[in-house]
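Severity: low
Component: inverse-folding endpoint
Summary: output formatting inconsistent between runs
Steps to reproduce: submit the following structure tokens with default settings.
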């Protein structure tokens, strides 16, 4: 035993630990293999008996709106539960609940308005292209933003007429059952959204391999995504994968420096860096490098690290004690590679810090862009700063990772912003802003960050199969 508060007991139970103080929040029983078989059968029966996929879209939309109403009514309770389940500051948890509400409303509208394509009629036939659900979809989510990630998958999947088996992370198991209850209370036919609990390597692996699952939607680490993709390839079922990132900020000398400093700090240290789009690599044009990085460090040192329930807290604890150990190892690795710690680089001590999984926001410089600390995702409050000489150098370094999820570009030169935005390999490009996310814009990444795109109209089509129907005339 390593003496850390543990998230698992015997084989069949998960323990949710509040990372702010190490206390136990709740215990959740893991789903067994035979229960999984039963859930698949229940979902298939529900699909057949409820007529969900044949229900007129506006009736499906009405239920999605009621689900949004249910989350709205309970949003404060849900936000508090998430805060205890994974340690995010309460304000952020409330924003996640708002996002879940918006997602259900958006896909209610999409479901109601999605059009059927008609090919130009020929003299002897006309053809219609219609969308049909896959049937049973496995939705697997990570621990960092459970309610928001669950909604991003469940809303379009059920809007498109599917049944869902939702598997939350073993490190944040408490929100998915609440969402399933709200869905039931809103009138979603029983069995159409069920929750599978347990560890990824056990029940998660059984879920993706289950012959009853016809489509897989996964958000999590790239390593896991690759393993799931192999199973999906063997089974010939589609897999949509939203994976990790090592997103760069590029700051040119002509940037609005005040705004850039604020956004760089918020972009990495919001959610204590536990965000797939965290701007974890900072590239600054060499002639302003020292001044800019010093300002980033000063602002970082002023961040209020504390209890997630305190309204003034800007950085809460990490989501688990085990994750803090990973971050400590990551920073040690950066030091061993020659990185200089400009601030942070340790867990705070004294008072509330002694009981929680806190780690100080950390800025590191002096590394080559090929160093492991500049290549691998920390998924924590760690920023690496590097200078660049010119556009070509920035693009070479910025694109020099396996990831390609997002990037931020800071310049007042519109043409340059456009050029660099097109050249950087990233699914989301934020120019003079960062982490803007709306449900109507597609979201995903290049290279090892993603396979497919969520959100937007494509997020609905993701859960639909295309059928062409020809009428002879
Ligand atoms: P993870 O890959 O360890 O786990 C994610 C989920 O997959 C969990 O529910 C887990 O139980 C399950 N799982 C694990 N192994 C499995 C297997 N073999 N078969 C089926 N399911 C399995 O990731 P995590 O640590 O929970 O989350 C952190 C990662 O998620 C980071 O890399 C982060 O960048 C990424 N993430 C990406 C996005 C995005 O939209 N691109 C959003 C949030 C988080």
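Observed output (run 2 of 3):
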């Amino acid at each position: 035993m390593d003496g850390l508060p543990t998230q698992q007991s015997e084989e069949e139970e998960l323990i949710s630990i509040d990372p702010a103080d190490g206390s136990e929040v709740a215990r959740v029983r893991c789903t067994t293999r035979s229960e999984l078989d039963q859930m698949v059968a229940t979902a298939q029966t529900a699909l057949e008996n409820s007529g969900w996929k044949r229900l007129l879209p506006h009736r499906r939309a009405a239920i999605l709106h009621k689900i949004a109403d249910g989350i709205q009514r309970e949003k404060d309770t849900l936000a508090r539960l998430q805060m205890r389940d994974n340690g995010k500051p309460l304000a952020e948890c409330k924003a996640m609940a708002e996002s879940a509400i918006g997602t259900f409303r958006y896909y209610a509208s999409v479901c109601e308005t999605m059009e059927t394509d008609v090919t130009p009629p020929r003299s002897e036939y006309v053809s219609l292209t219609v969308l049909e659900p896959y049937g049973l979809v496995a939705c697997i989510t990570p621990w960092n933003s459970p309610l928001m990630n669950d909604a991003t998958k469940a809303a379009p999947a059920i809007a498109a007429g599917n049944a869902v088996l939702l598997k939350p992370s073993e490190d944040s198991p408490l929100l998915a059952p609440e969402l399933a209850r709200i869905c039931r209370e809103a009138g979603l036919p029983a069995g159409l959204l069920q929750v599978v609990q347990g560890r990824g390597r056990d029940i998660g692996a059984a879920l993706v391999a289950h012959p009853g699952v016809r489509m897989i939607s996964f958000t999590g680490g790239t390593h896991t995504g690759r393993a799931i993709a192999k199973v999906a390839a063997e089974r010939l079922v589609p897999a949509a994968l939203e994976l990790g990132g090592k997103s760069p900020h590029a700051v040119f000398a002509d940037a609005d420096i005040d705004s850039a400093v604020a956004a760089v700090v918020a972009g990495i240290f919001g959610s204590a860096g536990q965000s797939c789009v965290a701007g974890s690599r900072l590239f600054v044009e060499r002639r302003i490098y020292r001044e800019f990085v010093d300002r980033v460090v000063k602002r970082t040192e002023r961040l209020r690290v504390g209890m997630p329930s305190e309204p003034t807290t800007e950085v809460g604890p990490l989501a688990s004690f085990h994750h803090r150990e990973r971050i400590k190892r990551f920073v040690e690795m950066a030091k061993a590679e020659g990185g200089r710690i400009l601030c942070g680089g340790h867990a705070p001590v004294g008072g509330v810090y002694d009981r929680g999984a806190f780690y100080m926001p950390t800025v590191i410089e002096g590394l080559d862009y090929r160093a492991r600390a500049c290549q691998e995702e920390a998924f924590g409050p760690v920023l690496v700063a590097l200078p660049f000489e010119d556009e070509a150098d920035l693009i070479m370094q910025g694109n020099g990772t396996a990831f390609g999820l997002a990037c931020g570009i800071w310049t007042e030169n519109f043409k340059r912003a456009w050029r660099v935005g097109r050249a950087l390999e990233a699914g989301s490009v934020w120019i003079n802003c960062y982490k803007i996310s709306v449900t109507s814009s597609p979201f995903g990444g290049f290279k090892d960050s993603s396979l497919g795109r969520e959100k937007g109209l494509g997020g609905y089509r993701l859960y639909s199969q295309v059928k062409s129907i020809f009428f002879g005339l």
